[in-house]
Amino acid sequence: MAHFKITGGTPLHGVVAASGSKNAALPMMAAALLADGPVRLQGVPRLDDVDTLSLVLRELGMHVGRHGDDELLLETIDPTPTRARYELVRRMRASFCVLGPLLARRGRAVVSLPGGCNIGDRPVDLHLKGLAALGAGLRLRRGYVVAEAPRLRGATIDLVGPRGPTVTGTANVLTAAVLAKGTTVIGGAAVEPEIVDLGNFLNALGARIEGLGTSTLRIDGVKQLGGTTHRVIPDRIEAATLLLAAAITRGSATVRDAVPDHLTAVLDALRTAGFQIELGDDRVTISAPGRPRPLAITARPYPGVPTDVQAQWTALLCLAPGRSTVQDTVFAHRFLHVAELNRLGARIEHRNATAAITGVDHFTAAQVTASDLRASAALVLAGLAAEGETTVRRVHHLDRGYERLDEKLGRLGARIERRETAITA
Hints:
Blueprint (H helix, E strand, L loop, with lengths): L2 E5 L5 E5 L4 H10 L7 E4 L5 H12 L2 E6 L3 E6 L6 E2 L1 H4 L9 H8 L1 E5 L12 H9 L3 E5 L2 E5 L7 E3 L1 E2 L2 E2 L1 H11 L5 E5 L5 H13 L3 E2 L5 E5 L7 E4 L4 H13 L3 E5 L7 H9 L3 E4 L3 E5 L8 E4 L10 H8 L5 E6 L8 H7 L3 E5 L2 E5 L8 E3 L3 H13 L3 E5 L2 H6 L3 H7 L3 E5 L6
Parallel strand pairs: 2-17, 3-16, 6-7, 10-13, 20-21, 24-25
Antiparallel strand pairs: 1-25, 1-26, 3-5, 4-5, 7-9, 8-9, 11-12, 13-15, 14-15, 17-19, 18-19, 21-23, 22-23
């Protein structure tokens, strides 16, 4: 199993590019089930999650082929399969996004309840509520959702949950509604850039969606969708992680192929922490000559600070003098990285959905183990700033959502080495 050896203490400098968005590409891949023509997606990163969903889609009768470094061609060659099996869907939650388009296009979907990172309870009740409102017959059978409908019908649906809008739920209901008879209005829809990009992709296929970027979506159903070519937006989580890597090492870096408007909350927090930020049309430059100021960070749905950078912010604020707090209103249990950061010398107390941090002068190298995708990134960032050589185990989590992050950090001057040999306890 792969692990990283990181020799910390080197400020990062240089220019690096963000890859295409994982969280936009995956629901688009699932939505390609709706298309009657070939779909060409550009800017799709090489990730384990992309490979997993490709396997799911191939079992559902699709051709999925990669052309060059960042392009996928998807086309249905057998429209009869309707079952997405547990062995694949359990690997990541985004696989569940095949439910809506599979039901809408083929009239039946049998999809395993999802798996993915160990970051707390993420129920799919809002997905099912929305599909039921569209007329789907639903039942649970041996860990699978069985959904059936000859043709879905438009409805008014409220997708607000106890922790705010559901991103994957919005994707599932939206992709189902584009082929429903009549008009669907989705209230409480997620407004994340990835949902906007998904909607733009569906409109390019021939869907009729209004209100993208707002919490109310109006969808006038159509009978058929064609094919299209679409470029996926840049990954705002990867861009933020790279900026935080420069900040935690007291370096300077430019992240190009980014969308600054998608990073507003993160950039505002970095400025408040004392770092200099310069913006271009498609790039962000950070200068971080010193330690961060202490902050109170709260992860919220977009346009707030994303929950997907909560762990990385926690790592950075461990080096801020004084007291900081990090709260997560989206996934209250997403704090498994805290114990591992404390192994590196951090002083963090975790209670409920909040981490209270007392800043330390530096991290001290140790062996740590990643528990999920974003925790992996936080431990890598801490290792970059630590004194000595840090080992980060189980970095396969990282490969699910970051395209060659170790290589990109290496281009900025990080001393990081991937090793495939086993580590004994």
